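Chapter review: from sequence to fold.
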Amino acid sequence: MAPESRLPDLTPARATRASLVVITYNWPDALGRVLDSVAEQSRLPDLTPARATRASLVVITYNWPDALGRVLDSVAQQSRLPDEVIVTDDGSADDTRALVARIGRDFPTRIAHVWQDDTGFRAARARNRGIAASHGDYVILIDGDMILHRDFVSDHLDFALHGHSLQGSRLNASAAETKRLLDGGRARFSPLMPGPFPPHRAIRWPWLARVKARSSSGGRIFSCNMSVWREDLLAVNGFDERFEGYGGEDQELAKRLRHAGIRRRQLKFEAWGSGIARSPVGRGWGRGLAAHHPLKASSRDSPRGAPKERA
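The token string follows.
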């Protein structure tokens, strides 16, 4: 055996400064793409999960207390409860207020109801009011027709990283499954759940979820299942309230977050919500969630999406 004094030190040596040497010859197009990727490297933060100390769940609703009741039931059964639930209301009748008050008497965490006048489809303003009423350092946004998997909140917090937002998805229920859920049936988060989605999307694959979260695409943008650090939402001034009518405000917010240096990560194969079929009152939180065209503008001075007539 070699003398102990000649054994090398195997402790990893952390470089204090690293130089990247790139060789090129007469191919500026390729070099430009390489340097773009290098610029992205410099903005990658530490990927150690950043534990939020307080999580706020903001639920938007409009005149569908039956669906909202089922959503809040699923929140109460979370493996990791949110520290508070803010029901932000786009002008519902008194039965929604009464529902929240009744459920709130025995709810396992703080619940608050924020209401605004019913003067049209004003989801952007309603969500901003919900965010303003929250006290958590991490905000999870969902629609009022999303029955949550029991690990929904836990999954969002497990994947939360400073400098990032999270974009989840939903499993849209069929009309028959919606009726069963509204009648009190238990949500079925499996490929056997009836609905217009590929069966593999309903399989819980934690390892694949972590792979997808590292994707640069960030997933399709839907505010029915989205989470953002509260300080980042405040830094970009929240949703643009000039958006009225269905769609567009979530994509515009995502663009401004991106321009502020907040990278969007895709949360797939975990953190599910079972989306109940279209609301009978026509407000349409998640009414099929058809993909919107990406916004070409990202400034609050260039809102997209003309006001739409109410259904």
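Two observations follow directly from the output. Residues 42-47, 279-311 have pLDDT under 50 and may be disordered. Strands lie at 55-61, 84-89, 110-115, 138-143, 146-148, 164-167, 171-172, 225-229, 263-266, 273-275.
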